[in-house]
Amino acid sequence: MEELGLAVPKTHYLALLLSALAPHHPSLNSWRRGLLFLSAFAVAARYPGRQASKRQAVAALRWAERVRTQARALLGIRERRKR
Fold first, then answer.
1. Which single residue of 21, 30, 47, 77 could bond 72 by disulfide (Cβ 3.0 to 4.6 Å)?
2. Segment 29-72, tens digit of pLDDT
3. 8-28 pLDDT, tens per residue?
4. What's the distance, CA 50 to chain centroid?
């Protein structure tokens, strides 16, 4: 959003951010399901009484890695070499 000169809202709701970006990058619409899933872990899982199962945590990590890789590619940022 910053690269496009758009206002960046203060939110953990990733689908809202996607909605603002999608008109500029329609290919991002394919991320919607994953971002909705990840949004559930943005705040609630950090507080007592709410936790993710191991299966959910693994799935969230997988989605986060996929989104990160695609976002870096969209921005032209190369992946770092693993040591």
1. 77
2. 998 999 988 888 777 666 676 777 889 889 989 999 999 998 89
3. 999 888 989 999 999 999 989
4. 20
pTM passes above 0.85: no
Q: How many residues make up the chain in this entry?
A: 83
- Tokens, residue 71: 């976002």
Residue with tokens 């603002």: 20
- Which residue's structure tokens are 């890789």? 69
Query: Tokens standing for 77?
Result: 């940022």
- Write out the two tokens for 83: 């040591």
Cβ–Cβ contacts within 10 Å for residue 38, how many? 19
Contact 52, 41 (CB under 8 A): yes
